[in-house]
Amino acid sequence: MASNVPPNVIARTAALLRAVGAAEPDGGSTTELARATQLARPTAHRLLTSLADEGFLDRDAASGRWTLGPEMYLLGSAAAAGRYDITDQARRVVHTLSAVSGESAFLSARRGDETVCLLREDGSFPLRSHVLYEGIRFPLGVASAGMVILAHLPDREIVDYLKRTDLQPEWGPEHSPEALTRRIDATRETGYAVNPALLVEGSWGIGAAVFDRTGKPAWALSLTGVETRFRPERHKELGTLLLEQAHILTGLLRPER
């Protein structure tokens, strides 16, 4: 049976939930959340109130700020227990990456058109890049994790994403559709993605995809560090290490037969 809920209502509601999540732990005011989602304040307030009525949000009576509610925790726990929370399996892999390379190692997960960093472990080398940290989000195609996930999507999904997404205003000309297409091709050739200091000068990254039970690129392992540690002659060494550990983690996530 077809739904009677207009798609734009679902999109607006989802945008508000993401905005509240991004504002945790202090939460956000109605005005702040309306601004973050580009909604009219009355519309935002109406949707926020409806979400609170259903238990998906809480509102502090004194400050009026909105935070995630108990239903979000229950649903999130149910989902994480099954398909999405792989942090327990990934910790040993992330540790191996940081210990062997000496660089900062990360696990990121795909969330729609973004990646979110879930785990970080710093290596022994004293100079580090601080671009990535747990909880930070980037669009697909930005940073090595977002690039390697994008590159391993089917061609039709890549074409659709590049048609509806304009990364240049925020991330610069190296994130134009043409530039992204070239980097996708390079990533597919080697299997791993290289971010040559496109976010912060002097901060490099290399990433490899981790696949879910259906073979989709759902996560990424990555290493970041200063430019002197990511010279071209070391790319293959780090890329091979990432591919090996990504293969191990992908195997851990597949059901036993």
Give a written overview of the molecule.
There is one protein chain. The model has no long low-confidence stretch (mean pLDDT 88). Helix 2 (30-37) crosses helix 3 (41-53) and helix 6 packs across helix 9 (177-190). It is built from ten helices and eight strands. The strands form two sheets. Strands 5-4-3-8-7-6 form a six-stranded antiparallel beta sheet, with helices on both faces. A two-stranded antiparallel sheet has the order 1-2. The longest helix is centred in the C-terminal third of the chain and has 22 residues, at 232-253. It folds into two domains: 7-75, Orthogonal Bundle (Arc Repressor Mutant, subunit A); 86-253, GAF domain (Beta-Lactamase, 2-Layer Sandwich), CATH 3.30.450.40. With 257 residues, it is an alpha+beta fold. The protein has helices at residues 7-23, 30-37, 41-53, 70-84, 87-101, 143-151, 155-164, 168-171, 177-190, 232-253; strands at residues 57-59, 66-68, 104-111, 114-121, 137-139, 192-195, 203-211, 217-226.
Distance N to C terminus: 36 Å
Write the CATH fold name of the largest domain. Beta-Lactamase
Report the structural category. alpha+beta
Q: pLDDT under 50 segments (min length 5)? A: none
Q: Specify the number of helices.
A: 10
Helix content: 40-55%
Strand content: 15-25%
CATH architecture of the largest domain: 2-Layer Sandwich
* Strand order in space, largest sheet: 5-4-3-8-7-6
Q: What overall geometry do the principal axes of the alpha carbons give?
A: globular
The tally of beta strands, per DSSP, is: 8
Largest sheet: 6 strands, antiparallel
Just give the CATH class of the largest domain: Alpha Beta
CATH-defined superfamily of the largest domain: GAF domain
The SSE order reads: HHHEEHHEEEHHHHEEEH
The average pLDDT score comes to: 88
Q: Can you tell me the number of structural domains? A: 2
Domain IclR-ED: 71-255
Keywords: DNA-binding, Transcription, Transcription regulation
Domain HTH iclR-type: 7-70
Pfam families: HTH_IclR, IclR_C
